[in-house]
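A student in our group prepared the protein record below, which I am reviewing. Thanks in advance; the entry in question is below.
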Amino acid sequence: MVKFRIPGIHSSLQSDYIDRLIKLTSHPALQKIKSAINTPQLYLVGGTVRDTALGVESKDFDLACDLKPEEMISRLSKQSIHCVPTGIDHGTITAVVDQHNIEITTFRVPGKRNRDRPENLYSKDITIDLEGRDFTINAMAFSLSGGSFIDPFHGIEDLKHDTLRAVKDPSTRFSEDPLRILRMLRFGPAQSRKIDNATLKAASNLYSSINEVSTERVTEEFLKILCSKNASDALRLMRKIKILDIILPEIVSSYDFEQNEYHRFDVFEHTLAVIDNAERTPLQRLTALFHDLGKPHTLSVGDDGRRHFYKHELVSSDITRKVMKRMKLSNELTKGVYNLVRHHMRPIECGPAGLRRLQRDLDNYFEEWLLFKRADALGAKVGEAEFDQALEAFMQMVNEENKRIKLNDYRKLAITGDDLKELGLNEGVKIGQILGLLREQVLDDPAKNSREYLLGEAKKLLISA
């Protein structure tokens, strides 16, 4: 096998890394692309190389070559490979091969990305292309043709030492695309890498330039940070460099905001603890982020000096809906987060009637609510063993209710609005009110869900109305 010299890397690590890259180049989908494009200047780049270096199976294939998009599409189409012009304004197409979406980008010179960039800013040199990438760990390439490893900025060394460093001048890199400041947080603390001083200083100076980036791009990157393994570390740094204040100004009032004897941390640190304990899904992590935003707005102090936050969950849920609309998140996700935030103070130490109302109010989000209750409890002063004991008793009650539902599904009333009309009631609003009162009785005691009983109660309600 050909030996490659990579400065600063132990030979066994070097060999292992190169072996993995060589093996990856033999992937059938990549071989089809290589054959169709037919240029010696075709390279694996970006996250594909980085992930392979880490021994992580790359979900996506990122390629770069010296051909312009139109020529790439022409050559690929001749081999019946479907192409999508996903980012053709910036020289990027997506080739669909054997159910793999493979991004291929024309070599580019460093510079600010915009739709008006003239074509002569494309490059024919992979090294120049790598110079314009954000961080050294993303500025490595491996040839599909000659097997050569290109690492002009020593990204493999930074990868080995868990360091995130901008390529060349960090201020220039961040000015080209301010979203890179958020990418710094995702590839840095969110993935347990330290950021080199010059890179962090530039980000701290340029944080306000994130306002130049579209809401959609910011939201997408922010969600990746929020759902990362070490989201709390990234969010702390976001607070420190003040970029979090721009993306989520509603959270600023939670900084250093004291709670009460039931909590170990202030509101912000409690929020981070809950995020760390929450499942790594947008639904759970956003719920964790937003669930206590209403506390600073609902503070009251009793005669005994104790701090209270009555109904803060209602204020938090209203803030949640406004923030998620501003972030242009989907209606479905917004509905889920809103419901979990609004009901996060409902206790699991409740009776059967309380459980039935919980299941009614949460509907399809009941299981997600249980997951979040655990994360929230562990982020406060509740011990894991204490919570699990309470949860065990709660789940026994859930199982009993599920058995009851199979015998008599009290969720569907034994009478309908048509039955009330036969009693002489025609007013739609009044019908809805009476049915609502009957549902409450059935939730208190499911045995009352019989046609005979409910009709009798309906008659009483009509007489007293």
Observations:
- The first strand starts at residue 42 and ends at 45.
- Residues 384-407 form the longest helix (24 residues).
- The CA atoms of residues 351 and 397 lie 8 Å apart.
